[in-house]
Amino acid sequence: MLAGCALATATAGCAAAQPPDAVIEISNVQFTPMDAVVPVGGTVEWRFDDGGVLHHVESPGAFDSGITGDGTYTHTFDRAGTYTYTCSIHPYMTGTVTVR
Ligand SMILES: [Cu+2]
Fold first, then answer.
1. How many domains does the chain have?
2. Which keywords does UniProt give here (predicted)?
3. Would you state the pLDDT for residue 3?
4. Is 2 a residue whose pLDDT tops 70?
5. How far is the CA of 9 from the centre of ligand 1 (A)?
6. CATH number, domain at 36?
7. 30 CA to middle of ligand 1, Å?
8. Inside any domain, residue 58
9. Ligand 1 centroid vs 27 CA: distance in angstroms?
10. Ligand 1 centroid from CA 57, angstroms
């Protein structure tokens, strides 16, 4: 694992080696905060912490956590823009990540 991390650092960065630029908690069937702003190349970590309730962080064509009830999901944003994401299980759960 450490060797893979070191290799990744030379190219796309190693999310595990540094704290994320933004953390979004998933609890009480909502994203907190709903909106995050990170620099280009920044990372966002979603923490699934809703007592085992299944959630899904999905931005079609950009990123997809898969459906899960625990753990974390981290995505690195290499291009500027505004990314809207939702939970496919709870469509009223939405948020944005702004990369600039
Ligand atoms: Cu959900």
1. 1
2. Signal
3. 41
4. no
5. 32
6. 2.60.40.420
7. 7
8. yes
9. 9
10. 8
Is 11 among the domain residues?
A: no
What's the gap in Å between 39 CA and the centre of ligand 1? 26
- Asked, for residue 2, whether it belongs to a domain, the answer is no
- Calculate how far, in angstroms, residue 2's C-alpha sits from the geometric centre of ligand 1: 32
* 8 Å CB contact between 8 and 14: yes
The pLDDT tens digits of the residues spanning 20-73 come to 999 999 999 999 999 999 999 999 999 999 999 999 999 999 999 999 999 999
Instruction: Provide the pLDDT confidence category of residue 18 given band limits of 50, 70 and 90.
Output: confident
Rounded Cα–Cα distance for residues 18 and 80 (Å): 20
How many CA atoms lie less than 13 Å away from 14 in the CB half-sphere? 13
Distance of CA 55 from the midpoint of ligand 1 (Å): 4
Residue 51: how many CB atoms within 10 A of its CB?
9
- Rounded to the nearest whole angstrom, what is the distance from the C-alpha of residue 29 to the centroid of ligand 1? 6
Here the tokens at position 79 are 């291009």
pLDDT in tens, 71-82: 999 999 999 999
